Amino acid sequence: HVIASNPPYIPSREIGNLQDEVRDFDPHRALDGGADGLDPYRVIAAEAAGFLETQGRVAVEIGHTQKNEVSGIFAAAGYVLTGTHRDLGGNDRVLVFERRKP
User: Fold this and answer.
1) Which residues span the domain enclosing 7?
2) pLDDT in tens, the chain (102 residues)
3) How many domains are contained in the chain?
4) In the 8-state DSSP scheme, what is residue 98?
5) Helix, strand, coil percent values for the chain (each to nearest 5)
6) How deeply is 49 buried, as exposed, middle or buried, from its count of CB atoms within 10 A (0-12, 13-18, 19+)?
7) Does some domain include residue 14?
């Protein structure tokens, strides 16, 4: 099983600083990741196990500065980082986690 997600990851306070075409086109809830931009990852990490078999994987898009924080959230929930994919600019953009064996 694999869960793939492109959750909102922008901190609430930074929404107003986005480019007009992003801020004014995308729905607010598709952008706003809460105070620190990490709220959706906390929910996904906590609830994904209910949908995955052991060694199931979760792939999430992240903001380019969020690798360590998101990795910590998933590690605390019983996942191991198994892959990092970069965007065309060379920034960390997708993290893949595997559910640890119980």
Assistant:
1) 1-37
2) 899 999 999 999 999 999 998 889 999 999 999 999 999 999 999 999 999 988 899 999 999 999 999 999 999 999 999 999 999 999 999 999 999 876
3) 1
4) E
5) 35, 25, 35
6) middle
7) yes
Compute the chain's Rg from CA coordinates: 14
Angular region, 71: left φ>0, alpha ψ -120 to 50, beta rest: alpha
- For residues 73 and 60, what is the distance between their CA atoms, to the nearest angstrom? 12
Q: What is the pTM of this model?
A: 0.92
Three-point CA angle 76, 80, 84, nearest 5°: 120
**Residue 48 domain flag:** no
4-14 pLDDT per residue, tens: 999 999 999 99
Is residue 17 one of the residues assigned to a domain?
yes
Nearest to 71 by CA among 98, 31, 33: 98
